[in-house]
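Late entry, written up from scratch paper. The run itself happened at the end of the previous shift, but nothing got recorded in the book at the time, so transcribing now.
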Amino acid sequence: MWKQIISKIILGCIEGLIFYVIYVKLLPWLINYALGAPMPQIETSRILLYLGFFISMSVISSIVKPHIGIIFDAILTLFSISIVLEIIGTGVYETTIDYNGVLMNVPFEFKLLAYVIILATIIIGITRIFDKLISYK
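Output as recorded:
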């Protein structure tokens, strides 16, 4: 019994860390790398809050019964989407570039990329929910 609970807690921590790395660390880096435009940085206190939230929701989702765990998976998915929206914003990023001594405002529009990332997040969330429903004994 205790061995199962501890293994579920460890599994929840690993899942939470994976979500954290994907949505808080990897996603801004990929957008920065793909567009070549610096993305706004997330505050350190918020990063720790996100890490704690991802881990706690994943642990709760893995410990409780699957039909209750889907609620926490849905919350985790919605929270992931909100982080994506916070990072990407409206899908338009404006920066100032010095070109031959002239400062120019250059907008970068990546709404399609934002929609693809949000759609992928929704698909992952729905897949996790259906997995819990199917594997429920």
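The chain has four helices and two strands.
(Scratch paper discarded after transcription.)
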